Amino acid sequence: MKKVTIGLFAILMGTTSFAMAEDAGCEAFKWPVTREQALFAAAPSAPSGATLAVGAAADLALVPAEKAGFAVPPERVPAEGTFGAVASVAVPPEGAIQISLSGEAWIDVIQDGHAVKSAGYSGVKTCPGIRKSVRFKLAAGQATVQFSGAKKETLKVAVLAPE
At 71, phi and psi to the nearest 5? Predict the structure, then answer.
């Protein structure tokens, strides 16, 4: 009986420690990701080519990278067998957007035919449901967002104004 009790205690402590580690993982981002967590929970499906709204999330369907129709070649060449998508976004007058992803993928933002370098990046492998968040400073107006190198056929994407 003593061995069973000790075994159950060890399992309980291991599970509790794991859950605490997962929660602590989200705190490792450079900025809060609680808005993304809430939006990802109810993200509607969207096809490649969709328009992403600032302040919302989408469960983006990806296609094989070679069929994604990138406006410019991705900064990182996608590995064979990976997935990608292209979407558009209307950049607000402030010009700052934050794009967060549920999984691993490369993000390129294209404006006026040129890739725009990110203004900030934060990535954490231990946060459930959110892998990375990247900030861009853009001109107000239309921009193209390219996702490449994803290992899965879907990717939750949130586009927000940075806090």
Answer: -65, -40
